[in-house]
Sequence to fold (161 residues):
Amino acid sequence: MFTVVGTILSVIVAGAVGLVLTNDSGRDTPPPEADVGSAAVRQWWSTASEHFDELTKAVDVANGAVEKQLDPTLIEDACQQMHDAAQVKLQAHLPTPDPDLTAELGAAIQDLHNAAHMCLSVIAGSMNSYGGEFTSDLQQGEKHLDAALAIINKSALQVPT
Fold:
């Protein structure tokens, strides 16, 4: 009787030790690369989101000011804010941990930087007509910001396993 009970206890103890070792072994396994990349983007976003939002708002203000043909001083301020938010503040957060995100943000920064210079040139009295180019660069910049935000949101939704 004691031999049967001893054998059963040995099997139970061995099974429990095996289960503990199996569960513990997964802790040394590195997380999948996608989880690491997503975590890196989320960490990057925690420091860059303020400047991304600032640029988005500056683009909206510049767009609205030009469309409504507001006071040139308001347009100049909006275009200067767009310039600084893109070329100075958000640029400081590049590269990102994700090469596609870096590419989209780099394209947005370049387009919006160009648009800001066109706007500021017109305000300064340039004889060139930048109307079509300004609108095109502004739209392309917004398109790249939207694509960047989609990448950021995709990373934010990926929960580490």
